[in-house]
Write the structure tokens for this entry.
Amino acid sequence: MGNFKLTSVEEFEAATNRLLETGAKVGADAWQLRVKNQTPHCKFGEQGVCCRICSMGPCRITPKAPRGICGCDVHGIVGRNFLRFTAGGSATHSDHGREICHTLHTVSPDGNYKVKDPEKLIRIAKEWGVETEGKDIYDLAHEMSELALLEYGKPFGTQRFLKRAPKHTQELWAKAEIEPRAIDREVATALHMTHMGCSSKPEALIRQSLRCGLSDGWGGSMCGTEFSDVMFGTPKPVDTEANLGVMKEDYVNIIVHGHDPSLSEMICDYCEDPEMIALAKSVGAKGINVAGVCCTSNEVAMRRGIPMAGNFLQQENVVLTGACEAIVVDVQCIFPALGPLSKCFHTKFITTSPIAQMPDSDFIQFNAETAGENAKLIVRTAVENFKNRKPELVHIPQLKQKATVGYSVEAIVKTLDKVTNSQVDETGTTKPLIECITSGVLRGAVAMVGCNNPRVRPDSAHIELMKKLIANDIIVVLSGCSAQAAARAGLMDKDAKELCGAGLKRVCELADIPPVLHMGSCVDISRMLILASELAKDSGLNISQLPLVGCAPEWMSEKAVSIGNYVVSTGIDTFLGVEPQVTGSSEVVGLLTDGIRDWVEAAYTVEKDIDKLGDLMIQRIEEKRAALGI
Ligand code: MSK
């Protein structure tokens, strides 16, 4: 174990407080201050009982005013708000996936984007019934891109990827009438259903919420993940580092932030360009250091080992170091606050997507066709900005941890094969993992996902839950900002096996893995769906029977609700540490926490006490084991 020590949440906070002192000196605003201005939050909004769907209102439901002007009761209003929230998340993830499909259409042997994983492309093509024999791989990529784009608007049929689910799951979806059709259609239907004068029956609204979530997880997000792998490579275990200490004082620091890897992959390429490195040296830097924030960070960490500076609530911190030459963003989870904040420092806040345009930013539009030129201009802009640094404002907290990341399903299967087979089976199955679980060496698995949210002490819920689960021999797979919380704390260091129970520790030693596995960004939760499906097929069980649960202890975004809906709809009980804005309706709460179990064999549990949330997950895993007699 050597000198291994986790970084504590108190150390995270001390580093943040020191950065906020710099912020105060230059008159910078910060989310910590804005939270104070925004609390207490509006109770009507918190409970989901405010309706702004037409201009007769807004209507707010109280005991004295139990119906809106149209006569809709609280259950209809809460249900409609929940469905609209889901639709926002599903549209966002799926549109990311669509952009990836469009980028796939631009691939060429000498272009900006290439096919890096031809085997995966061929595998998906065969799955979709596309002839691959004798076909040029780039012709196949273009054909697959067009077919994938049709998934968004096809007039008939359901999502192609649904066939990856076990037969039983597919039957449940058909019976519950929640099989997603065209991806965009489910979002449009959600908006139509929630228009004034359409659905106000909670059951119908929640059913569509599940369907709209499924169109994301088994549709748009899965396209995003799979075709990103085709273009940028399927992740394999790779070593990296995490936390603000990955920024380097003597280097030009470029931070990539957002979600879409098309831009960040290109930025990483140009940061290694000899011409750009020479330029950096000519302005007095030792070189160029690129690091990431949020899910863009997860994408480039998984494929290139690019260090992870921080997660969602760290995004202002990277600017507050005074050592960030440019924070380059694509889409989603980007604070508009970065504009005014960057003006307090020398930092260039570079927006690149028409989808995410913000005041006080430099907009350099990024297109797949001109990606190389755009990325080079961005890198050059950052490098030339090094001379504008104000040395008196520079402070980089010296916190960082080692992390091994890059556990795609393919990598997990291959790696865990080592636990039981001396000879690695190249085709691979999840059977070794199943054997570990049935023998009790591992008690089960938790898929932990999601954001930070100031309602929860940042990162504390993620880290405390992970420590508790691994100590109980429960393996944890992670994505999104929860993965970065783990990496920053040190839980993705292989030495963290010392914090595990005896069974998980043994598995970590045999397979040479950390006890929590980084599966990627938030669209990559589709990888977890595939893993759960493979486990079910290889074990002959239904997904809902597996000792496996999902958890989002610090979630905040619409995407997280869409994710929750597709995870429960896949048969995985899902545990939340932040209440969805539905508490105003007993009927909607009843459906989400219990009623939907009749349709999809899983439901939500909400518990704000994080220790109890951990106990409830362990209890559910043990109940599933007992039901199987293992
Ligand atoms: S970035 S959606 S804060 S995980 Fe994917 Fe993190 Fe949540 Fe954004």
Summary: The two ends are 32 Å apart (CA to CA).
